[in-house]
Amino acid sequence: MHPHLPFLRRYARALTGSQAHGDAYVRATLEAIVAAPEEFPADVDARLGLYRIFQAIWSSSHVEDEPGFGGDAPREAIAQARLSRLTPLPRQALLLTALEGFTPEDAGYLIGLPAEDVEALVNEALAEIEAQTRAKVLIIEDEPIIAMDIETIVRDLGHEVTAIAVTREDAVREAMAERPGLVLADIQLADDSSGIDAVKDILTEFAVPVIFITAFPERLLTGERPEPTFLITKPFQRATVKAAIAQALFFDEATALA
């Protein structure tokens, strides 16, 4: 079960839009397993069982009494402005399949629906994404082919790419020149500088949602320091990037209230 925890934390954060809030759900999941180990699903693999317990806790809770709810309540309130347009279940189906890589059958097991219903929910979520508020996007990526691929995905979603930066210095300069509404950042940059440091520099100037892209996501999901809310694993699928972008903007105040 332990190897699957970093990725459950990634899913929880993407679903809630918050590190603290997502981690609180994961903590509640682990506490439930410890309290009643006999209820852990025995007929599926450990990863499916772990996510199934998490889904049960998520679906049975409410905004006003969710575990750990408090410090970032305004972010959840922001999300309410869009819940009428993109309901929780379609978002769960999209994130489970696009971000976490579950098949429609496995996702259906997790949320208690047939595979065909999962596919319909994913299509519903994708349709809602098409109507999402457009944003200006800064890409921080030093690999030209990957940068071009990300740029194409961003533009296909209807967003504007303000710049593609390849170093920490470039990233900060471009962000200050034209403030983006979203940042997509690689970890290792061209001059051996860090995308994490670039993002920290940018965030000292203004708030903006960030999606990190890395070949080693487990290194950023250790629980030992502040970690990214949105994280994409390389090599990535186009659907994964689309889902992460949509979810990051879903929870962003500027786009939610536009």
From TrEMBL:
GO CC annotation terms, alphabetical: DNA-directed RNA polymerase complex
Response regulatory domain segment(s): 136-249
Keyword tags: DNA-directed RNA polymerase, Phosphoprotein, Transcription
Top-level taxon in the UniProt lineage: Bacteria
Residues recorded as bearing 4-aspartylphosphate in the entry: 186
Keyword set includes Iron: no
Entry-linked Gene3D superfamilies: 1.20.140.160, 3.40.50.2300
Membrane-spanning intervals of the chain: none
Name listed for the protein in its UniProt record: DNA-directed RNA polymerase specialized sigma24 family protein
Record keyword Mitochondrion present: no
InterPro entries reported in the protein's UniProt record: CheY-like_superfamily (IPR011006), PhyR_sigma2 (IPR053866), PhyR_sigma4 (IPR053867), RNA_pol_sigma_r3/r4-like (IPR013324), Sig_resp-reg_PhyR (IPR014605), Sig_transdc_resp-reg_receiver (IPR001789)
Any one GO BP annotation for this protein: phosphorelay signal transduction system
Organism of derivation: Sphingobium fontiphilum
